[in-house]
Write a structure and sequence with these properties.
331 residues; 11 strands; 2 domains; 15% strand; Helicase, Ruva Protein, domain 3; globular; Rossmann fold; alpha/beta
């Protein structure tokens, strides 16, 4: 294990090969959904969380479970419902009649990959409990604080068309997600292949490509190989992009379309995601093209549109595209 971890730290070609192998292993089970697979890998290496938006039956759960298998990581799934309580997520204190002492029954957050299915069906108390876990990497059970795994990724799903019995996620919670990925219907070719695979009803064996310990090593490696200083041109570009999402910075151009723009947390997320994107594609530096690609998943859920924009059919992706064309890449 030591020699393998050392190779992860010192050989960029080895790392890119490992990322490609993860994609290939996932491809044995999942057809298409390349953006979702790559987004999960980038979030894992950036220590971020993901909000998945898509219709039911598009393979979100299977994809996350498959990636967990290729990483030798723990996986838990929670179906969020209106009657869920915080303890269902974090865990409980229970009385042991044999020892006559209380003990902690840990909840599903004590894992590596947590799929929070239909997160917007849970009330505020449950969402706040998950928020503490996402932000602080810890939960409070009784009077004690318990730390979560260092590799901990929340993938929360939302159904974009069903609003009955749902709760709006507060902007403060939405901002904790590094990415918002939109999952679309597969192409005819992909859907036919999905059907062909599923009717066989066999479980595909998968190899473990990276371990959680190696992911932690990779995070340190990426930081060392791509040091992003506040004086660097790419950081200046990222900062100007994020600031341009705010109406007060747009010289009136976004006043009728955007209520709130992205926060400084978006600047940090965009910098981290762009760095990892460059890294896993084998590039030596972070380029504006990397930032351009990552801007959509990082910013789309952080731009709050006005009713006027929504009535015109304008989306946050349209605003991002407008900003990317407006903000110059070099200053």
């Amino acid at each position: 294990m030591k020699s393998r971890t050392k190779a992860v730290i010192n050989d960029k070609g080895f790392i890119k090969e490992k990322v490609d192998k993860i994609k290939n292993e996932v491809g044995k089970v999942i057809v298409g959904q390349e953006e979702m697979v790559e987004g999960i890998i980038i979030a894992l290496l950036s220590d971020g969380h993901i909000l998945l938006e898509g219709y039911p039956g598009l393979g979100k759960t299977v994809t996350v479970k498959t990636i967990a298998r290729t990483l030798g990581a723990k996986f838990q799934r929670v179906q969020f419902t209106p009657d869920l309580i915080p303890g269902d997520i974090t865990g409980f204190e229970v009385w042991d009649p044999e020892t006559k002492k209380s003990k902690v029954q840990k909840g599903p957050v004590f894992t590596n990959l947590l799929l929070a299915d239909e997160i917007n069906r849970s009330p505020a108390k449950v969402q706040s409990a998950l928020l503490e876990a996402m932000q602080e990497k810890q939960v409070t059970i009784g009077r004690e604080t318990h730390f979560l795994n260092k590799v901990f990724l929340v993938l929360a799903t939302q159904n974009p068309i069903e609003i009955s019995g749902t709760y709006l996620l507060p902007e403060a919670e939405i901002d904790r997600f590094m990415f918002k990925l939109k999952i679309n219907y597969p192409s005819y070719k992909d859907e036919r292949e999905i059907a062909e695979r599923q009717v066989l009803d066999t479980e595909t064996p998968l190899d473990v490509i990276l371990t959680p310990k190696e992911i932690l090593s990779l995070r340190h490696t990426i930081t060392e190989w791509f040091p992003l200083h506040e004086t660097s041109a790419i950081i200046k570009y990222i900062t100007r992009l994020v600031r341009a999402t705010r109406p007060e910075e747009s010289n009136g151009e976004l006043n009728s379309l955007v209520m709130y723009g992205a926060s400084p947390r978006a600047t940090i997320s965009l910098a981290k995601a762009s760095r990892v994107y460059a890294f896993i594609h084998g590039d030596d530096i972070v380029l504006p093209e990397h930032v351009y690609t990552m801007a959509y998943p990082v910013l789309r859920h952080r731009i709050i549109l006005t009713h006027e924009a929504e009535s015109q059919g304008i989306t946050s992706d349209d605003i991002i595209e407008k900003i990317l064309h407006k903000v110059t890449r070099l200053e």
